[in-house]
Amino acid sequence: MNIIIIGAGKMGLTLVRQLSKEGHNIVVVDNNKKVVEKTVNDFDVMGIYGNGADHEIQTEAKTQSADLLIACTSTDEFNILCCMVAKKLNAEIDTIARVRNPEYFTLFMSKELGLNMMVNPDYEAAMEIFRILRSPGTIKIEPFSGGKVDLVEFKLAWDNPLIDTAISDLTSKLQIKTLICAVQRDEEVIIPKGDFIFRENDKIHIIASPKDAHILMKKLGIFKSVAKKVMIIGGSRIAFYLAKQLDKIGIAVKIVEKNEQKAMELSESLDQAEIIIGDGSDRQVLQEEGLMNVGAVIILTGSDEENIMISLFAGSQKVNKVITKINRLSYYSMLEASGIESIISPHLLTANQIIRYVRGKQNSMGSSVLNLYRIVNDQAEALEFLATKTFAGLSKPLKALSIKPNLIIACILRDNNVITPHGDQTIEAGDKVIVVTTNEFLDDLNDILN
Amino acid sequence: MRYRLLSYILGQVAVVEAVLMCLPFILSMALKENTLLAFGVTILILLALGAPFIIKKPDSLDLTAKEGFVAVALSWILLSLFGSLPFFISGSLPNFVDSLFESASGFTTTGGTVFDDVEVLPKSLLLWRSFTNWIGGMGALVFIIAIIPKSNARIIHLFKAESPGPQVGKLVSKLKFTARILYAIYIVLTLLEIILLLIGRMPLFDSVIHAFGTAGTGGFSNKNLSVGGYGSVYIDIVITIFMFLFAINFNIYYLILIGSVKQALKSEELRAFLGIAALSVTIIAAALAINSVYRSAHEILRHTFFQVGSIMSTTAYFTADFTAWPMAAQAVLFILMFIGACAGSTGGGLKVSRAVILVKAGIREIKKTISPRTVNNLKFEGKKVDNETVGGVLSYFAIYMTIFFVSVILLSVSGAGSALKLGDSVMASASCLNNVGSGFGNIGVKGSYAMFNSFAKIVLIFDMLAGRLEILPMLLLFNPRTWTKK
Fold first, then answer.
1. Which positions in chain B touch A2 (Cβ < 8 Å)?
2. Worst-scoring range by mean pLDDT, A46-55, A360-369, A406-415?
3. pLDDT tens-digit profile of A159-218?
């Protein structure tokens, strides 16, 4: 794929490194000549020095024939402008902008301005911390379709209530509405039907909104929340997003923030969280605020060094789970070696998110597949299609459709809502439909029909 | 300096040279010439030396800029060294330094020869001579970059060290594809010239030889009278056109290929190149007309265009004895040798873009003296050239001239007691350093480099390599700090 990356900062370089390794043709644009020269010397990419929002520079970077433009400078407005210019030069191009300001990070902005994706390092970091907090080691959770749904994988232990239950009884017996998409039994992958009966050691894959997945795991008793109470040190934007998420699933949050104004702002926008004004690097403050009684501490101050010191202290106080945010990539690899567990790097996470997008796009090129992920050791595929007017089963209830074997419609995304399909559900134009199948070569939504 | 990495690259160069040598080997076999053994032995030696080093890849292919320079310099020495073996083993040139000179002259696209009579040489040897011109034109390492399956990011240092010009840029984001596009343009243009020459009823073998000579801007011919030996206006015109074409930056052809003709024509270097050519043609034609060297105007223009193209592109083919031309014409041609072709072409010399930057830097200096407070930006190709690049061009020019002067002195010292004159030392140095090959005086149309002694030839070999690789790679070899282990 031909990819243009504007901004060769921490995130830009992470993207350049990974994407050039995967064989894409990359053009890097930056307004710092030294940075461009270094990038061109270090990676097999083309470098252009100049203003990335200048249409002449974009023409020089061959936006007209590019497949994807990623704007990841440190300025939100500039990134959005880059993407808009690109869209004007080439209507077919996919654009991704890094946008940190929550006021811009809205569906309206991305839809109306023609951005294909907005990435927000703060939001992504918050979501990742959220995932770490709620998943014990045996459960694997991966975001899918831009994070709107989760792909959850877990194994049935001997005490799981699902064992010896048929799928058709799930709703009546356990009040579970979530669809089971695929089951791995020994080496075999099964797309289960109503008469499927679960056994011990089955590996279950589900696709559901994060909230539904959470409810399901709670009901099955395999999910024991790591923490009932969480302390966040440093009232950054990540803290804001995280507190909102934790609030949704009923975890009590306490945020320690040094700056009074920031603390006030947080308390305005967060209803449930308890905001403390205090220096998070002060032991006494932390002890008084009950560091020993919380299930997890998340350290998000602006300084990497401070974060490391606090995490060492929290570790010495026997806090169950300590999650530390690190910005500098060189620290990241050092700390991983030193054994500090659970480190979060917003840049790295966002870069990975974009790389997933690129891979999905790469896989789906030449077909109407929006996203494609291989799951269950590559034995099954989860595909995301856009339902267009050409779909033969439009507006018909699913039970009236004749759907191919070994295939399941896992969920439907309509206007940002996740719908778990049932027999009476219909697919409308504009919906995004996620299908899980062991059949290969699905190129179009019509291919799911017999 | 990581020697494992270096030996890997050199091993690849050796194997590639062995493969390329198969072409004259096959011709030798087909024509049953006595050079079969010479080529066969050289190929075997190259394979035996190269193969062991490339079987296992080194752990890391991350070249530093310094290693890139050294690898390129050593590669070219290796190419010249083994490229000379066929001349030596076949007995055509019993003196090894002579054969080395011929080989280096071929690879560096200089095209100066030590043969007094090339028409008696076996065809396979002639083909090899011209083939070295062709390979050297675009570069052997660029060829390797184009063919290796998975390129490493840092391999750009090899590309930068081998490609001529002050600013080396890529055409597309992947270096491998840049190299492939360059070679594709190169091959297509060469084939086109062969076909056009065939239409002019030049024999196939001669067409190939002259197309190789023109494409690489080397100028090896299989006729003692060079292109003049055919006496055909059509052939003169075809070769004139192609000499100009190969002296132009290849990026321009790429721009035309992708449809940006406007942008291609806007190129300041191209305009400067054409301007210099037009001016030179005017002066020389006027000088020829005033001194009534030729009878008709069309004859004047035919020879003038041919010679200007030949010297500017540093090919050094000739159709007429330009050493007998009036002094004004000779002076213009001598200066053209130093200006040379465009950056990013196969030609040698200082390069037009450097010449333009030099002149502009000079003008800026004068302007600064007149009004010291004025801000004067040096612009080239519509963009500001930063002081680092200007400084680089200025110091390149200084080193270039220094090497030229040292070379003149060394040649003059070595020539004591022989029939050589000062003019010959100056001419030979200028000709070799600029990769032209021919000149005035004793190395002119009727002469060769045979009368220089071995020491002088080694100096000239250094000049040729330094000129082709743009000096720095060759000079690095003599710095002891290059060789310390890190």
1. 173
2. A360-369
3. 777 888 888 877 777 777 778 888 888 778 888 887 888 888 888 888 888 777 777 777
Is the reported ipTM for this assembly greater than 0.85? no
**Residue finishing a domain among A97, A119, A141:** A119
Of B153, B177, B386, the CB nearest to A43: B153
Question: Minimal Cα–Cα distance from A49 to chain B, Å?
Answer: 11
Q: What is the pLDDT of residues A239-257, one digit of tens each?
A: 999 998 888 888 889 999 9
Low-confidence residues of chain B: pLDDT under 70: 149-153, 416-417, 485-486
The whole-angstrom separation of Cα A256 and Cα A281 is 10
A25 touches chain B (CB under 8 A): yes
CB contact under 8 A, B154 and A41: yes
CB pair distance less than 8 Å for A45 and B151: no
Strands across the sheet containing A252-257: A274-277, A252-257, A229-233, A296-299, A321-325, A343-344
Q: Which residue of A has its CA nearest to B175?
A: A44
Q: Which two tokens stand for residue B222?
A: 């299989």
Q: Do B173 and A41 touch (CB under 8 A)?
A: no
Chain B contact set for A44 (CB, 8 A): 151-153, 155-156, 173-176
A17: helix, strand or coil: helix
The structural domain count of chain A equals 4
The alpha-carbon gap from A4 to the nearest alpha carbon of chain B, in Å, equals: 10
DSSP for B291-302, written as a single string: TT-SSSHHHHHH
Residue A359 lies in a domain: no
Q: Which domain holds residue A402?
A: 368-448
Please report whether residue A357 resides in a domain.
no
The answer to the question of residue A358 being in a domain is no
Q: Which amino acid is at B98?
A: D
- Residues A333 and A403 reside in one and the same domain: no
Say what the pTM is.
0.79
**C-beta of residue A436 within 8 angstroms of C-beta of residue A405:** no
Is A360 a member of any domain? no
